[in-house]
Write a structure and sequence with these properties.
The structure holds two protein chains of two kinds. By secondary structure, chain A is mainly α. Chain A contains four helices and no strands. In chain A, helix 1 crosses helix 4. In chain A, 21% of the residues are buried. Chain B is an alpha/beta fold. Chain B has one domain: Rossmann fold. A seven-stranded parallel β-sheet of chain B has the order 3-2-1-4-5-6-7, with helices on both faces. In chain B, helix 1 crosses helix 7, helix 2 packs parallel to helix 3 and helix 3 packs parallel to helix 5. Chain B starts with a strand and ends in a 5-residue tail after the last strand. The chains are: A mainly alpha, B alpha/beta. Chains A and B meet through helix 2 of A and helix 2 of B.
């Protein structure tokens, strides 16, 4: 499952880059930093990326998940820091849907 | 073009559904009970817009069958007319749940499905009771005031996705919504209007036609009241 989710996130990053200006492009890699001081994703870009990922999770896995929720903010470490942490968080969400 | 209209079993919602079906659009409608509207381009969903789980179920089904929508018309609404001192909190909450939270959740869930549209449009319903500050309509007018603010802020937040958000404020139209209002009170309301007649369903459709035409992609965050109310 983790591999599948990571693939979906990477495909979503590509889709995000297709919609964004050159100055906002993100590296398509499992090491990409997302919402972090060191990253270049701004808050509006983050909203767009989350919407794309949720839509792709639905299309590929038939799961209707909500990524930004109280659960996400109650974590000790932010799940939105990078692709790796986001992958783990989404695996958790998808498995709790099953 | 795929248009979703809430609260369309009767009244203005029903009229708009038939109006857009006649134009050859796909129309998706929802209400708390079944609809007898039959058309190959029409789908009906059983939804109480005050219930988030009902809306999410509809989103799931719409996503599966259509993948996107182009226009959302948040027509569903309930009215409560009573003196403030005699208005139970439960009624006030029910009006806010249907009118304001129903509109809010519909906008949030379906704006996501509009990202794939070239011309995403959201049209909300307000009321002349808000600018006129009509006694006895506190709860209803307050719920619509919240919808106006939502319309104007969403217009800014959704502009980056090429979605416009506007509202229409009809004058009294002879539908079930005003069937309990005294004739004398309705006559007094007409006196506030620049053009003193009841509204027609066609008047509402005309404003919505304007909002949704492709040329209106520079019109957002606007509220148009019918009959010359401002």
């Amino acid at each position: 499952m983790k591999e599948k989710i990571q693939e979906i996130i990477l495909a979503s990053l590509k889709e995000f880059n297709e919609e964004e200006d050159e100055s906002n492009l993100l590296e398509v890699s499992k090491n990409t930093i997302l919402l972090d001081k060191k990253g270049k994703l701004d808050s509006l870009g983050f909203v767009t990326l989350v919407v794309i990922i949720e839509s792709n999770i639905f299309n590929k896995l038939d799961k209707n998940i909500t990524i930004v929720s109280e659960k996400a903010f109650s974590k000790k470490y932010s799940p939105f820091k990078n692709v790796e942490s986001l992958t783990e968080f989404i695996v958790e969400l998808v498995e709790s849907e099953e | 073009m795929i248009i979703l209209i809430t609260g369309n079993r009767k009244g203005i919602g029903r009229y708009l559904s038939e109006h857009y079906l006649e134009k050859g659009y796909v129309v998706l409608g929802c209400s708390r009970s079944e609809s007898d509207l039959q058309n190959k381009n029409y789908r009906h969903y059983l939804v109480d817009v005050s219930k988030e789980e009902d809306i999410k179920k509809m989103v799931f089904e719409v996503k599966k069958e259509f993948g996107k929508i182009d226009v959302l018309i948040n027509n569903a609404g309930i009215a409560s007319m009573n003196h403030f001192l005699l208005t139970p909190t439960s009624i006030a909450r029910k009006v806010m749940d249907t009118n304001y939270f129903g509109t809010l959740v519909m906008c949030r869930e379906f704006a996501r499905l509009m990202r794939k549209s070239d011309n995403g449009r959201i049209i909300n319903f307000t009321t002349i009771a808000k600018p006129l500050k009509i006694p006895g309509e506190l709860i209803y007018a307050a719920s619509k005031a919240a919808i106006e603010t939502l319309t104007q802020i969403l217009a800014k937040e959704l502009a980056q996705y090429n979605i416009t958000v506007n509202a229409i404020g009809p004058v009294p139209i002879k539908t079930d919504l005003i069937k309990g209002v005294a004739k004398e009170k309705l006559a007094n309301l007409l006196e506030y209007q620049a053009i003193k007649r009841f509204g027609k369903r066609e008047d509402v459709a005309n404003v919505i036609d304007f909002y949704i035409q492709p040329e209106s992609n520079f019109i957002t965050g606007q509220i148009i009241y019918l009959g010359g109310i401002s």
